[in-house]
Amino acid sequence: xxxxxxxxxxxxxxADGKATLAQKVVNWNNRPRSxxxxxxxxxxxxxxxxxxxxxxxxxxxFWDGLYNHGYYLDATVREVxxxxxxxxx
Length: 89
What we know:
Layout: H1 6-12, H2 21-30, H3 39-67, H4 71-88
């Protein structure tokens, strides 16, 4: 008796009778899904974007304050003030 190859085991359901990878893929593809996923997961993704941005800004402020004595923050505030004065006349 010859042992089954992995290809034939996938094709006929395997020796133990459980669903094979090919069958699971077919079942997964036939399952109805929305285009964008669940609303909850979309909200989590948006929230994580905000968390990442806030963490990056906080890291920059700490780095600038500790290692540069606020040089870049000071230069940024001065430049923004100059631009606002230019725009508003």
